């Protein structure tokens, strides 16, 4: 097995390890499973230095946060003040034709260029 193939195999094992830790506590919902695709889990692993336990913990916290805010049901209309002030912007639409909004961070500076 070459070095590249070994790295891919190790990455796959880490992704499976994160999924195993997540589902050990409770099964994922359909929406959570959709969010926890390989690319998503790899981002959490990268953010946590390939530490499976830390990535799983952060991902579980993220899933809980998404559930608590009902993030799947938020729409851009709910942020009209932020959009008008330039603190947020609509960057396009997702595959389901919902608006994808971004939020500027940095102490509430609303001097950013407004996007149309």
UniProtKB/TrEMBL annotation:
<protein>
    <recommendedName>
        <fullName>CRAL/TRIO N-terminal domain-containing protein</fullName>
    </recommendedName>
</protein>
<dbReference type="InterPro" id="IPR036273">
    <property type="entry name" value="CRAL/TRIO_N_dom_sf"/>
</dbReference>
<dbReference type="InterPro" id="IPR036865">
    <property type="entry name" value="CRAL-TRIO_dom_sf"/>
</dbReference>
